[in-house]
Amino acid sequence: MVIPFKKIILHRLNMRMIFPFSTSFGTMQEKDFFIIEAVDMDGNRGFGESVAFPIPWYTEETVKSNKDMMEDLLIPILRENPIEHPNDVFPLFGRLRGNNMAKAAIEGAVWDLYAKREGLTLAKALGGEKTEIDAGISIGIQPTIGDLLEEIEGFLEQGYKRIKLKIKPGHDVDMLRQVRATFPDTPIMADANSAYTLHDIELLKQLDDLDLMMIEQPLQHHDIIDHAKLQKEIKTPICLDESIHSLYDAQKAIELGSCKIINIKVGRVGGLSESVKIHDYCKANGIPVWCGGMLEAGVGRAHNIAITTLSNFVLPGDTAGSSRYWERDIIKPEVIVENGAINVPTAPGIGYEIDEEALEEFRIEKQEFDM
Ligand code: OSB
Ligand code: MG
Fold first, then answer.
1. In terms of residue numbers, what domain contains 318?
2. Which of 4, 84, 96, 354 has CA 20 to 30 A from 340's CA?
3. Interior/surface letters 235-266, b for 16+ CB within 10 angstroms, e for the rest
């Protein structure tokens, strides 16, 4: 049956994180993003969240490019084409190059709406089976090693099952050595966000002594060739993040031996449908995956929880509890991490209610599109 869309609403929100998050590419604290609400003729409401940042320093997309794409092209495509299943959306968008985060934001709202219409949890609709998922944490670059050790200690006390540390040139091997000396048995990984080149190979080889779970995206943000060369020289598994925009990219990276692990970010690959395909391909080829994060508010976080219930998400992801980021989140209840795990909600769709008061508190713009 065709999904009878009535309207799409774009809520633009501004939220301030309770801490500044620093990576090799910059520091972020203000979140400016869209909650996409898809309403059907029966009054069901599905929600998606856009993950592009105001500045294109992670991928090329921005908040404004997301807005233009959704308004000018993606919502009209949804209006003009009958959609029976959320898997129909990405192929329709496929006529447009790139802009994966804009596509994923709209598709996410359709997935939630579809699951609610069918009375299924989003996790179940995606083929997921886990009832709880492991939570890891991503810690930004800290002013001093003392601050960092304190942060790690705090998150371990909260039960987080693995610690990801951001690295950049001048803030890498020595820092990781000190962390390893303090926490000899903790599952630790490092994320470089493309800060190195093959000229740094001697430095990157030193990571092999630190028993890291993996090194995430050490080299250029579109590269799979140099990563394959590097993986041959180091024992530490490489995990690709920025370089993987599609199933095609995942296939080529695996074929070349560019990585042993893949970070799936729903926004980066254009949505949940493509995420499932990458998950399935990796599973069939013995490549473990985990779900990355984009400092999401509750709706995006709920989508990440749902996709993480698929069986080959075997490594803890970056999906942490709401309170790690926000004084007040936009969903009820908030995402809670207990003993290092998140209980997958059981209500239909994303399984969390929208906190309408919070939505209004943080909203700076609202646009409605009749379908
Ligand atoms: O590389 O995984 C990344 C945040 C913003 C941009 C890129 C990345 C990250 C994170 C944070 O590591 C993950 C999170 O807590 O949402
Ligand atoms: Mg990363």
1. 125-343
2. 354
3. ebbbbbbbbbbebebbebbbeeebbbbbbbbb
Which residue's CA is the nearest one to ligand 1's atom 12?
A: 138
CA distance 259 to 216: 9
Label the pairing between strands 163-166 and 188-191. Answer: parallel
Whether residues 96 and 224 share a domain: the answer is no
Distance separating the N- and C-terminal Cα atoms of the chain: 17
User: Is 188 among the domain residues?
Assistant: yes
Catalytic residues: 166, 265
**CB 51 less than 6 A from any atom of ligand 1:** no
Q: Both 333 and 362 in a single domain?
A: no
Name the stretches of the chain with pLDDT < 50: none
pLDDT tens for residues 48-77? Answer: 999 999 999 999 999 999 999 999 999 999
Same domain, 101 and 202: no
pLDDT at res. 346: 98
The model's pLDDT over 96-116, given as tens digits with 9 standing for 90+, comes to 999 999 999 999 999 999 999
Cα 9 to Cα 69: distance, rounded to the nearest angstrom: 14
Distance 49 CA to ligand 2 centre (A): 19
pLDDT of residue 220: 98
Q: How far is the CA of 113 from the centre of ligand 1 (A)?
A: 27
Q: Which residue(s) pair with 367 in the sheet?
A: 10
Q: How open is the CA angle 224-305-272, to the nearest 5 degrees?
A: 55
Work out the mean pLDDT of the chain and round it to a whole number: 98
Beta carbons within 8 Å of 157's beta carbon, 6+ residues apart: none
CATH number at residue 200: 3.20.20.120
Dist CA 112 CA 109 (whole Å): 5
151 and 193 assigned to the same domain:
yes
Asked whether the whole model's pTM tops 0.90, one would answer yes
For the Cβ of 295 lying below 6 angstroms from any atom of ligand 1, the answer is yes
| SS3 state of residue 182 | helix
Q: What is the pLDDT of residues 284-338, one digit of tens each?
A: 999 999 999 999 999 999 999 999 999 999 999 999 999 999 999 999 999 999 9
